[in-house]
Amino acid sequence: KAGVTQTPRYLIKTRGQQVTLSCSPISGHRSVSWYQQTPGQGLQFLFEYFSETQRNKGNFPGRFSGRQFSNSRSEMNVSTLELGDSALYLCASSSTGADQPQHFGDGTRLSIL
Amino acid sequence: AQSVTQLDSHVSVSEGTPVLLRCNYSSSYSPSLFWYVQHPNKGLQLLLKYTSAATLVKGINGFEAEFKKSETSFHLTKPSAHMSDAAEYFCVVSGSGYSTLTFGKGTMLLVSP
What we know:
The structure holds 2 protein chains of 2 kinds. Chain A has strands at about 5, 10-15, 20-25, 30-40, 40-50, 55, 65-70, 75-80, 85-95, 105, 110.
């Protein structure tokens, strides 16, 4: 069974640009969660999608948004990038929800210049 | 609110010696607790989970953890460290009143020959 796949693995952007990250969950998993990981703040929950609906949201500004498609694949978008958005963005999937054991992808490393 | 405190940011051991990574939690509900491991440039992998069935939980790669309600602790142990255990370890809590996971700040395990 294929694991969680995130693309791209690495991205370099400049301030003010926008970026879209993609996540394909494990087959059959309907819940997809996104996390931001930085050395200073650790792992922070961004949002969760379940059956194409945002079910939970963390404490991030509206520049961070996401969506989920009917095949459970999910995308995360960050607009008007800031230097502080440099981070490892992790996607995780589970069969039932964001409070259950998560299966993580290897992440997208986003660097803002 | 629920929270997790990992008591050590770094732990150094020699190969073949025991490992102890400490975690205390706070939750208003009966918690589910997890330990995850993250190797460099990789996503998180579930080591073990506690969901009230047994207080001593065995995980992968020889790791185990004991849930102690009176001490609100969930420490991770391994009898004999291997070089391949060098990674960052996260203690995670989920409660029935919360819809997402709460991660600790992580403990970096260093293993020397």
